[in-house]
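User:
Hi there, any thoughts?
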Amino acid sequence: MIKQTPYNEEAFKINVRDSYEMLMSHKSSKTSITKGVTGISYTEILQLLCMQASQQYTEKLLRKIYCREAEYIPFHVFRDGVFLACVFIDHVERSQKLFENLDKENTGQIDRAIGDALFRQLQGAVSRKPDDVLGLVEACYELGPNKIYDIVQRIHQAGGSRLIYRKEEFVGKLVDLFLSQIK
């Protein structure tokens, strides 16, 4: 039910609420006062949502938003965790696509200088404060296709480096950057 709509659509919120209520209704009748979904159910939902990502990435996310199995998870925590898992999967997929776009010769590797330059661009963009509107506009510009193309071209013209990134390392670095933003 949760994955029926993209996370950036209004219907997603309704589906998350309905999923939470469904999980609540399947709880044991022994608990007359319901405080929320159990931690084990919450974790299982997050694992299901993250099935497409490698287990290594999923484990990093789950460690970041960990809860105890017997702990009751209120709706706002459930909602935020589900949303975060969906955004996380999107980030992993986009990171993999970025690598594939840079790996034009399908060698399974990219120039480390290009990877590091793009990582610095992303790092600069995510370090902006959300209430800094001008900063967010600048971040969008810095991550735009023309700017990325200029960076790649500049490094190619300079001869690049002999060092490489393999896909797992590059995507892992971008995953770590994403996770570093979760408080």
Summary: The longest helix spans residues 75-102. Residues 110 and 152 are 11 Å apart (CA to CA). Residues 1-91 form one domain. The mean pLDDT is 88.
